Amino acid sequence: MALQELTWEDRNVRSTLRAVRTAQPLTYGLTNYIAAHQSANFVLAVGASPAIGAIAFAAEHLASIAGGAWINLAALITDTPEQLVSVARAAAGSGTPWVLDPVVVGAGAPRIDDFARELLAIGPAVVRGNASEIIGLAGGAATSKGVDSTATPEEALEPAVALAASSGAIVAVSGEVDLITDGTRSVLIPGGHELLTRVTATGCGLGALVAAYLGSGLDPFDAAAGAHATLAEAAARAGRTARGTGSFVTALVDELSLLEA
Amino acid sequence: MALQELTWEDRNVRSTLRAVRTAQPLTYGLTNYIAAHQSANFVLAVGASPAIGAIAFAAEHLASIAGGAWINLAALITDTPEQLVSVARAAAGSGTPWVLDPVVVGAGAPRIDDFARELLAIGPAVVRGNASEIIGLAGGAATSKGVDSTATPEEALEPAVALAASSGAIVAVSGEVDLITDGTRSVLIPGGHELLTRVTATGCGLGALVAAYLGSGLDPFDAAAGAHATLAEAAARAGRTARGTGSFVTALVDELSLLEA
Amino acid sequence: MALQELTWEDRNVRSTLRAVRTAQPLTYGLTNYIAAHQSANFVLAVGASPAIGAIAFAAEHLASIAGGAWINLAALITDTPEQLVSVARAAAGSGTPWVLDPVVVGAGAPRIDDFARELLAIGPAVVRGNASEIIGLAGGAATSKGVDSTATPEEALEPAVALAASSGAIVAVSGEVDLITDGTRSVLIPGGHELLTRVTATGCGLGALVAAYLGSGLDPFDAAAGAHATLAEAAARAGRTARGTGSFVTALVDELSLLEA
């Protein structure tokens, strides 16, 4: 199958970032504390307003007033399954489009996999993960090392298409080349940089970016593709100036904030 | 009302930073995990020793031995209301001056607002927030977008003065120009940099800085004013060298650590 | 006692980093949210794969499949004592060597000290802390300021040797000069940089590094010594280019990622 490629050079991609910078949506997420600070800075860098965490007395309220939301399964390191379900339902119930990021699915812990399917049934607009996670969520036998995928994006193509078709969600697979599919139409997003895999929580931050794009009134397919292509471009630029992995993170946020849409 | 302006050029402001660098107080806080790492590095950069988190078996002990403390309402994303109250009481009971940072107050979640008032009744030395939060805590109708204020500092002046007068706490409002008031005397702190609003948790970190200044034996008004003016100066300097929002954060901590008092 | 010194110039030290870059072990930790993001980036910088947090449904599984693990006592700011014990037992039961980092021990909270001894009885391969923590864990009267040591490494020598002898663990004390001992053989690791004490969570990150080295099939003594000497060298290099404390952190991660073993 020859798939279309999308990159930052595509004007439709650039227009998605312009939409975010104009809408500046409140973007609410449940995520893990390894990723939270960086995810917030990713969201701010593209022009949206992040709020993060299952804060007592206010979590469902934030999910209902947000433009877009994301739920990262690794939020379970501090939040309860009930809190995740409650926020997912508050988002779904108030028409807030949301992203499911199935971290750790397919890593060999069946109750995590089951719980991810419970969230999937609540109806995310986008599911975003690495190849192992998407294969695992689609019911296949994934291979992984903890939270890192050892499967390739190519191996994830069929499972991703099937998952999109069965769930109704856009499915996005990040890897050396990213894949976005709605079950019928699929596109590839090349670019990025090898250093993305040598710093923590860039995938988690990508989930937050997709939520910011969703919150800007974009179609879920365009939101997912736009967010992935934006991060890929920022990473490619950051990789040209970074000395090592520390300065790469700093440059990555710089480039996200500086991209001219 | 013509208000006095305070800036880094004021020798009384510089002397507050000198006090912190000399006292090096243990500064203990409950905060949220988005802000925690950066808040600790802010506190270390001015010369104090941070400790953060509602650690089992030791939280009240840390609050009681600290020079200064802060309680950021967004700590509720991992801590219970009871833990926040317990630490506030331990601080109050042992004479540790503390800062209340009413994150999310006024955002439309009434139980958060009620809980903030419960903490206020325990007697913080300083209340520090953005305009929406201070208006909300003072009982007014605030406007906000999640955790970001959409009210202006000018709109917060009257509510801040009233809140200070009724609570006995110094009230600090951060914004394009910061406002510090004890209910009678009010000062403005200009400076800072627009990029402060494009990176996460700088307000949370400012709450931690006020606690470090309080822990250095300064009068609460001087502590609040000194901390705000220090951050404003560091941000102005950082803004002159930053490329984008990533390098701004790095430069901000650098400048805090390099300021010659 | 004249102790042997180990530095990055020692080829046996360099070979430990080479072992990590070859083995790329899954390294699993329970730690605190102040340290988590930076600890993950430390682990990635030396070539290993980090996973962090007491994630529901999967924590014991991760501990059992990991190459190495670490438990930082300050994880108690979000995790329960039972979760820490459960992960320690899962690691011990499946032969995953693990590091105990007794943060806050000796700070005057006796129940923390008791709980650290309960974890010690489960059999960590390495205990790593600052002087106050090691003195406290060994049963001595430590002095500290919150989470920062006010005792010197020299004062920790005898307690560290005794603790290693009684527990069977390698004991590592970080300070101006680091000390590694198995109760019989002790070595000193000079170097590092003063700025390590002016940024948060570098000690916590060192615990994570030791776990990555343990996960690479190294003898626990060599793993502890290698991780300490690697961080000391990276810090010395970072200190030569940093402007202030913000850029020091960035440079530290850069140097960890760039070290040629």
Automatic annotation (TrEMBL), chains A, B, C:
CDD domains: THZ_kinase
Keywords linked to the UniProt accession: ATP-binding, Kinase, Magnesium, Metal-binding, Nucleotide-binding, Thiamine biosynthesis, Transferase
Annotated catalysed reactions: 5-(2-hydroxyethyl)-4-methylthiazole + ATP = 4-methyl-5-(2-phosphooxyethyl)-thiazole + ADP + H(+)
Gene Ontology biological process: thiamine biosynthetic process; thiamine diphosphate biosynthetic process
Keyword Isomerase included in the entry's annotation: no
Its biological purpose: Catalyzes the phosphorylation of the hydroxyl group of 4-methyl-5-beta-hydroxyethylthiazole (THZ).
Family label: Belongs to the Thz kinase family.
Record's protein name: Hydroxyethylthiazole kinase
Organism: Leucobacter weissii
